[in-house]
Amino acid sequence: MRHPVVLTVLAISVAVALGTAASGTPGTKPTVREGGIFRISFHAGSGLDYIDPALASTAAGWAVLDTTCARLMTYPDKAPPAAFRLVPEVATGLPTVSRDLTTYTFKLRGGFRFSDGTPVRANAFARAIHRLLVPGVESPGAQHVRDIVGAEDVRSGKARVASGVVARGNRLVVRFVRPAPDFLHRTASTFLCAVPPSLPADPEGVSAFPAAGPYFVREYRPGERVILRKNRFYGGKRTHHVDGFNIDLTAVSPQEVLDRVERGDADWGHTLAGIYLDPARGLVAKYGINRSRFFLKPGFTLRMLAFNSARPLFRDNPSLRRAVNFALDRRAIVGVAGGPLASTPSDQYLPVTLPGFKESDVYPLEKADVGRARELAQGNLRDGKAVLYTNETPLPFALGQLVKRQLAEIGLAVEVKGLPLHTASSAYFAKLAVPGEPWDIALGLWQPSYVDPYAYLNQLFDARYIGGTNFARFSSKPVDQQMRSAARLLSGRNRNRAYGALDVRLARDVAPIAAVDFLAEPTLVSSRVGCIVLRPLLDLTSVCLL
Known about the structure:
The chain is α+β, with helices and mostly antiparallel strands and 546 residues long. Helices cover 27% and strands 19% of the residues. The chain folds into three domains: 149 residues, Periplasmic binding protein-like II (D-Maltodextrin-Binding Protein, domain 2), CATH 3.40.190.10; 124 residues, Dipeptide-binding Protein, Domain 1 (Dipeptide-binding Protein, domain 1); 224 residues, Roll (Dipeptide-binding Protein, domain 3), CATH 3.10.105. The chain is globular and about 70 Å long.
């Protein structure tokens, strides 16, 4: 993977911007004001989906819930690389873990209370686990707890609680049916926020409920507004400045979200990335990049082409999978998808900012190597036909058509099928995972709910996850062994190095997917916003008003 100069400069600019505790005029120390209400704008189609931690699955939803969430383990409210350092929050420290990585025992610290004053005990986390498993709820977070002993009994309606979850006082024990080396990182997702032990599970999601984080949801009116206020009983150490958040859900379009922020009617909003970089809006010309209003940070969302290893075309056919990687003109795809500020071309599966990432020239980034692609494809095209799934809306469908033209250069005839499902949605990936679903290539946006190599490699490619996150149904015993060996190194430099090397080997030798690019994360704030921490999304808990 080689990164052009413009993005190197961008990364440096981001680092400089993130080194400042608050936004303000260069060379001056801005005044941080405690209190005030931070105003947020969302559009229904690109913002908040649920306020329930068991159901929220959008970046906007996770950002809001993060302010209300108290977790066993968490990532600090800091910029990278400190943002990747998993630390205890409600847990007193790292759990006791059995040698076979199947049993985790947590001890909880005292002092954490819900916003109604009740103390947080181990049963708050047990309830969070069980809410993900309740039949009919269809929680996207169920993938994080399905391997707990007894989880399938809950999912099938045979039991109300999983036998592998034992909560007594401040002690929580979680047992798994197989080694779960990534469970510490799973606990840092908003799916596993502490919730009141009596909180019901509802397929439509609950609205206002007590929370144990710095803030709680006082009011939620779907399609209208969300009101968050300080938890006066908060017992943690997360720095927070504002008195609360008023979230307006009535923006009539994604564009209006940014209009409101530019006018000063909202302090922040989250919408479709391409809208920030629309030349007609001119955010770069107005505000520059990484100064005080408009920011661009390398993101963690991987755009990829997945290969269906259960279908004849790509089954046991690494040569053709590698041929497709060489045939892709990633720079051309980025150009159609929004340009060089919108994303960074990639031929590897781990984000460049993740600890352990190892730079390697696996496939060409600036243009296709059609000659090498044809060499690899020769004799491996089989029937020479492929069905490509993507979203039916103009941009993703156009990307599918561009890939079709590029792969025609190696003799592959691609039929593009647009689906009424967002290519980052759990519904889209669930459809891809259905046995017998007739697709060969799928354009997808992979945005894991926690940032760790396990979420980019093991979850996508380990045979254990076939039918779930391994929607491409890729299976290789040697690869499984390598990934599981890396995962057993729970933390530290050795783990980072192992995953960095594995990332290169997978892309180079096996190519279960074709990485295309990593999307940038744009942020626009009003002129009164300070204490800006980007991880890469704006850390709402840390913000202050100037």
